[in-house]
Amino acid sequence: MARSKTNAPAEASSFNRFNALRKNGWLAELGELELKVWCAFESYADRRGECFPSLATIATDVGHDAGKGEREQIKHVSRTLASLCRRGLVEIIERG
């Protein structure tokens, strides 16, 4: 599971979390793929910012490197998700 962390209120809507991303200056800081991946995850998020899409689903959603195989696309999305985690914008919560 992933959880969006944008300093928006815990029960914020997707719009409010996007607005917090903008207000905190992240639109200027994020690369194109980081922004696409964050938006794709956000499109699946509930009101708490939690979502459960697979990396393959996100890779398809962002249309990343369509000429590459699925495994390579998933690796790119995984690395991008790790970058978003390091920046504090997404938190990965292990199931179980």
Secondary-structure map:
Elements: E1 2-4, H1 14-23, H2 26-29, H3 32-44, E2 50-51, H4 55-62, H5 70-86, E3 90-92
Antiparallel strand pairs: 1-2, 1-3
Question: What labels would you give this structure?
Answer:
96 residues; mainly alpha; 3-stranded antiparallel sheet
Short description:
This protein is mainly α.
Characterise the protein shown here.
This protein is 54% helix and 8% strand. It is mainly α. Strands 2-1-3 form a 3-stranded antiparallel β-sheet. It is globular, with a radius of gyration of 13 Å. The model has no long low-confidence stretch (mean pLDDT 82).
Side by side, the strands of the main sheet go 2-1-3
Quaternary structure = single chain
Strand content: 5-15%
The number of helical elements comes to: 5
